[in-house]
Design brief:
Blueprint: H1 9-15, E1 40-45, H2 51-59, E2 63-68, H3 72-84, E3 90-93, H4 100-103, E4 109-115, H5 133-142, E5 143-153, H6 156-168, E6 173-177, H7 191-198, E7 204-209, H8 224-227
Parallel strand pairs: 1-2, 1-4, 2-3, 4-5
Antiparallel strand pairs: 5-7, 6-7
């Protein structure tokens, strides 16, 4: 998420330090120590300004929710929301999801949320998409076998690309829809989602069951000789 630089970012971050995990590597494999009585560990990657994060944590007080966001300007807004609600079951990490295996232990996560990631529309940037097989491999290492990640996007080409990647990796897909709110609001919406739903943009969503798998080979580009 891109936001303008905040001149008062540091003091705002300091006021939220109770929710900010500054050395997440130290908790790898032991995240439940933050809430020993939690029924499940959920992780949201790219939480943005945190509407979905705060409302999900509030609606599921028995769950420990860890929100990941690399933009500190967005994350501080998210943390402030959680503090205003007095939430004690949600914590925040500022990092890139690329490092997810450095932060969480093998099969430590019960559920992962991927909401409205950057579509990276150019083909040469496909590996940066958070539903590319390289990322799927990472998720299936840190999410327990049989656990799920829930994916939502307003971007139809990204969704179709993602569905193809899930199939290529042999991952089971449940509750797939290309118009989530067609018959009324379903579940908790992100702030971004609310705006696009109001514009009439269909929201794509599915749930993917995690399991260990061997990365399928990348499609090779034809050589000049093969093209001629």
């Amino acid at each position: 998420m891109r936001m303008r630089k905040m001149k008062n970012l540091v003091p705002r971050m300091q006021r939220c330090e109770a929710l900010h995990i500054q050395q997440p590597e130290a908790l790898q494999g032991n995240w439940r120590s933050l809430k020993p009585d939690c029924a499940a560990l959920w992780v949201e990657v790219g939480c943005g300004k945190g509407k979905f994060t705060a409302e999900t944590a509030q609606a599921n007080p028995d769950v420990l929710l860890i929100a990941v966001e690399r933009c500190r300007e967005a994350m501080v807004v998210a943390m402030e929301k959680a503090m205003e609600l007095g939430l004690t079951n949600v914590f925040y990490i500022d990092m890139d999801v690329e490092r997810i295996e450095e932060i969480f232990g093998a099969q430590e996560i019960d559920r992962l949320f991927i909401n409205f990631p950057d579509p990276w529309p150019r083909k040469k940037n496909a590996k940066r998409r958070l539903t590319h097989r390289g990322f799927l491999d990472k998720y299936c290492r840190v999410v327990k076998t049989g656990g799920e990640f829930h994916f939502k996007t307003d971007n139809a080409p990204l969704f179709e690309f993602s569905v193809e990647e899930f199939a290529a990796c042999g991952l089971q897909v449940n509750n797939l829809t290309r118009d989530l709110h067609k018959d009324g609001i379903v579940g908790i919406m992100t702030g971004y989602e609310e705006k696009f739903h109001a514009l009439g943009t269909p929201i794509n969503r599915c749930e993917v069951v995690c399991k260990p798998f061997v990365l399928p080979p990348e499609e090779k580009k034809p050589t000049q000789e093969e093209e001629t």
